[in-house]
Amino acid sequence: MQKIVGTKSTPSKKALLLGAGFVVKPTLTQLSEKGVEVTVACRTLGSAQKLCKDVKHTKAISLDVENAEALDAEIDKVDVAISLIPYTYHPLVIKSAIRKKKDVVTTSYTSPAMLELEKDIKEAGITVMNEIGLDPGVDHLYAVKTIDEVHKAGGKIKNFLSYCGGLPAPEASTNPLGYKFSWSARGMLLALGNTAKFYRDGKVEEVSGHDLMSVAKPYATGYTGFAFVAYPNRDSTPFREKYQIPEASTIIRGTLRYASFPELIRCIVDIGFLSQDSQDFLKPSSSSNPIKWKDATAKILKATSSSEQDLTWAISSKHTFSDTDQKNRILAGLRWLGLFSSDPIMPRSSPLDTLCATLEKKMAYEEGERDLVFLQHKFEIEHKDGKHETRTSTLCEYGDPEGYSAMAKLVGLPCAVAVMQVLAGKMAKGLLAPYTPEVCDPLRKELLEVYGIDMIERTVA
Prior knowledge:
Blueprint: E1 14-18, H1 24-33, E2 37-42, H2 45-52, E3 58-62, H3 68-75, E4 80-83, H4 90-100, E5 103-106, H5 112-115, H6 118-124, E6 127-129, H7 138-152, E7 156-168, H8 185-191, E8 196-200, E9 203-207, E10 217-219, E11 228-232, H9 239-242, E12 250-258, H10 261-270, H11 293-301, H12 308-318, H13 324-337, H14 351-362, E13 371-382, E14 388-398, H15 406-423, E15 430-432, H16 437-451, E16 456-459
Parallel strand pairs: 1-2, 1-4, 2-3, 4-5, 5-6, 6-15, 7-12
Antiparallel strand pairs: 7-13, 8-9, 10-11, 11-12, 13-14, 14-16
C-alpha cells in the first residue's frame, strides 16, 4: 500500500468516518498517520474491518445512520464526523452533529437539504465543511486562485470552462466505451440523466439528460496526446455567483471522456437501457433461472424476436446512425457488452440496474492497471490594459497499481487535509465550501507542499 506521510498531530483527536467506498482508504490512512483515532462505521461490520486492517489508531463498527439514537451515540464520542456515504444521508449526519455540537466534513456538493440546516449549524457553533474532494474540491481551490489573482490585478474573467474526467489510463482503455469503474456504475449512469444548464455567450442554455451525449464535442486541452470529448454536467449557472465572476458570459463545468464514449452511450439511452422502471422479466426469482441477455434485450426493445437480425432492426428503429461505419462500431460495442448473447442476465429489476450489474463485471479495472484523472480549467482573461489571454490550469494524475488510484488519492487526501484543519480549529464556524481565498489558500498550500497535488498553469493564447 502506498504510504503518503504528512505532519503529525496530537493523538487525542477523534473522528468518526462513515463509508466504505473507493476513496475512504487515503483519508483513513492519513488521519491515522497523524495520530487521529478513527472509528470507521459501515452498515456491515466486515466492510469496516477490512478498511481498518493494518491501519493503526482505528476501530471498526457497524452503524445504520438512519438510526438517530445510535448515530448520536457515536458522534458524541468524537470531535468530527466525516461523511463519505451517499449525499442523501448527509443531512442525517449533520442533524446529529448539531445535536451533539460536533463538526462535519464531506466531499459532496452543498445540497438544498444542507442549506436548510444552515441556521441550526450556526446556532450550534459547529463547522460543516463540504465540497472538498476532487470535483468538487481541488477544482474550486485553483479556480478561486486564478480568479482572485486576475481580479486583484484589475482584470476580468470573460469566459470560464472547467472539465474533469476520471478515466482508465490510455493503455487500460481496452473496451468500446473507453471507461472503467473506480466508483459506482449506477452513479455514473444516473449522472448521464441529469439536465445540464450553463451560460454561453451571456445566455442560459439547457440540455436534457436524454440529449446530453448529442452535445459532446472534441475538446482541445493543449495536451495533444489525449483525444477527449467534453459535455456539460449539471447546473453551472450558480458558479457565476459562487466564483464571483458576474462579468463572465460563458460558464461551463463538465465531464471529459475518451472519444468512443458518447456515441455508444447515446445509443444505450435511445434504446431504453437507462430506464429505472421495474420490469417483471428483470426481477430476481427463486423459482426460475434468469433469462438470457438476448431475450431481455428483445423485451426491452419490443423486438419481434431475439435473433441478432431482429434486435439490430429494432435498435435501428430507435436510434439514428450517422453512417455505416458508426453503425458497425456501435453494434460491435453492444455485442461486446453481451446484449445479444445467450449469457444469463444478473436480474436487478430495472434495465438500468441490470445493465449496471453487467458493466461492473465487464468494465472493472484488472490487476496492474492504472486510472487517470484529468482536470482542466480554461480562463479567457481581459487584463486591465485591455490585452486578452487564454490561460489553462491543469491536473494530470495517474494511479499507482501498487497503491492508491488517482481518483481515490485526489478525493481522499483533500478530505483528510480539511479534517485536520477543522480539528486544529483553523476553519470558521458555519456551513462552508471552498469558494473564498480565506478557505482555499491554506488547503491548496498544504496539498501542494505535503502531497504534491498541483494544477499547472499555462498561457496558451
